[in-house]
Structures are given as structure tokens and as C-alpha cells.
Amino acid sequence: MDFRALPSGDYTLSNVTVPACLLGQEGDLIRTELSIVDGKIGPAQGVAVDMNGAMVLPCFTDMHTHLDKGHIWGRAPNPDGTFMGALNTVRADHANWSPDDVRARMDFSLRCAFAHGTSRVRTHLDSMNGQYERSWPVFAEMREKWAGRIDLQAVSLASCEGFETGGEFAQIADTVAATGGVLGMVTYPVPDLKERLLGFFNMAADRGLAADFHVDETMDPGSETLRVIAETVLETGFDAPVVVGHLCSLSTQLEARALDTLDLVAKAGLNIVSLPMCNLYLQDRTAGRTPRGRGITLVHEAKARGINVSFASDNTRDPFYAYGDMDMIEVMREATRIGHLDHCETDWVTAFTSNPASACGFDAPALVPGAPADLVICRARSWTEFFARPQSNRIVLRDGRAIDRTLPDYAELDTLMRTE
């Protein structure tokens, strides 16, 4: 039968390949069957469909994205591919971020994510200089619009250099709390970082908010703000979930120092998210010089310490990353190659599914009876087949029914790319 043709009623996907860890079993890939009953995974019944070994995964969780920046490349390209080039270009483009502009680009990205098989997304939203007044109401609108298809969370994005216990940062925190979001900050090695973090965690605790940081997104081994965050969490006893993303400088530090910092991270219970595609694009870039460093953080060493490790998309077609399509299979494929996730533990798939869901507090994706039949089915019978191709012919099931996977046309964005 045609790979995409599935029965309309209850049915059983027989002869499918599933990572054993997603079924709570030992080993790597196993052959099994999954039954779809009233839109959920249930006991075997209905028509049996031989899937010829097709791989089945639960829908993905993309826990670190920038929906507000997505797809501005057409009007705001990075002039040199560097981090500072990206930062300055985005700041200049903020003048174009009207509610209508942000709304259209967010919706475009979410349609891509949905078509690719993502059901949970956390996005960071640039919030300083009054941008929170424009972007956060749009996010709340999009969260309602996409309810039932993609669960959405938002994190405020603001620099630690702009932190103050009152003023705009407090207004941002109030907006985050009113919207049910997460308090975020970008940390740099400023002299009084510890005091700023103490104020930040007090602000989050007073409002009952979790925290999510952009941390050490640099190849400078002297940037150790991750260490200060972990020490501050331990000192304050801050007990809400804390996510730390990027951590590029760990890869350039002396190994003993980096591992000692990870010991602190484990003790503090922080969640790590690695963004390998964006970091490979930005880090160690110098004109006329071949890059030496990969930019990816120490994911194997973190996992070995029991730290919850995830991977995510990060930026999409904006000055921080010129490419991407909100496709978590692309993230899986590139993370596996960049971070050598092969030839080691067999449960790295959880870093794209259940680990990020746990870090964010989303309902965990599962393949157990009673779980929603929100599945991604690929014509691949092994990991080498899975990673060798982009799986562009995948089937995405939501509540047991195949969705229309047509991607939006970039031409939709043409009018937004015109600036005065």
C-alpha cells in the first residue's frame, strides 16, 4: 500500500521500528506494533497495516526558538556571519517589529513546525526597549490560535546589563507573569553579575516564575557565567526549573575546570539545552580563516552527570542563523553528526522528545497506551537510514490522523521584507 495511506477508523501499525527507550525497554531499536484507538495509543484492534519496518517517534518538543526573529533575513541579513553582526542587525530591525509583522512571521514558523511534526514549542521574545508591549500580546494571541496543535510557552529575552530591580525589567517580569511565561536573561561576564543574578532570582521567585538563560554563547574560555548561575541557584535555593542554553565556552576551557562547572550544574539541578546548528554557524567565525571549533557544549559529559540535556532549533532564517525550518528531524540529524551522538548511548532520541518536555513542564510525549497518537512516521528501518535522508516524505499523525504537511511558501513573506 501507499506509505501515506492509512485507514480512517481504528487501526494497528504492525511491523514498526521504535527506539526501545521510548517504550521503557533496554536496547536500541526494536520491532513492534502500535494501535490507534479513538485518536490514542490503545490495545490492538482494527485493520492491521504492515509498515515494513517504518520508524515511529512521538511528536517533537522544540524548547529553544525565536519565533519573533524568524524569517527576517530577507530584509536584515547578517553582514559578516558573526555574533556581533547578528546582534547589531537584529537591534536595527526592531523598528520593523510591529504586531502585524511579528504575528505573520510567528504564524509562518509555527506552520512549518507543525508540518514537520513538532507539538510543543518554547520561544524567546526580545523584550527590552518597549518591545515586550508589542510582542507579548501577539504571542498570547498565537498561543490561543494554535491551542490543540502546538503547545506554546514564551520566555522574556533581555540582557543582564539591562537588569534592574525596578523600571522596565520589572515591567517585563510583570508581563511575563500575567501571560504565564518564563523569566529569561542573557548573561555576560560583567563585574557585578552575581548581584544581578540575585536580583533576577528574587524577581522570579516573587512572581512564581521559572528561569531560562542564554549563557556563555562565546568561544572565550574566560566566560564562566554558567558557573555563577549554578552557584547562585545553590546559594539561594531557587527551586523553580532553570534552563541554561548554549554554553559554548565550556568547549574551550581547560577540561578540569569545565567538568568541575558541570558538577555544579548537576548539583544545582539545571537543565541544559544545546543549539548546535546556530552555534556552528556563528562561533569561531573569522573572515579568511577556517573555523577550528564546533561551538557545541559538552553534552556527553553533562549527560554522564545525570543532567537533563536537550537539543533545539534556535534561530530560523534570521541574522543569528541564516537557515533552518523549525524541523526537529534536521536538528536530530545535525546534532548527531556535530556532537557524535552515534556509537554511544542508545537513548539520545529523548533529548528531542521527553527531555525538553520535562525541562519546560510540558506533558511528556509517550508511546504508551492512553497517550495521544501524535506520531512522526518515517520510511527508515535503522538509524543510518533515518539520518542519511531528510525524511521529507514522513507522515505526521495528530490524534491518529495524518495531517496536511504542505509547507508555507516563502513568497508569503515578501511584503514584510520591504522596508522604507
From TrEMBL:
Residues 197-401 form the Amidohydrolase domain. Its EC number is 3.5.4.1. It comes from the Bacteria. It holds the Pfam family Amidohydro_3. CDD domains: Bact_CD (cd01293). Keywords: Hydrolase. One of its GO terms (molecular function) is cytosine deaminase activity. The keyword NAD does not apply. GO terms for biological process: cytosine catabolic process. This is Cytosine deaminase. The lineage of its organism: Bacteria, Pseudomonadati, Pseudomonadota, Alphaproteobacteria, Rhodobacterales.
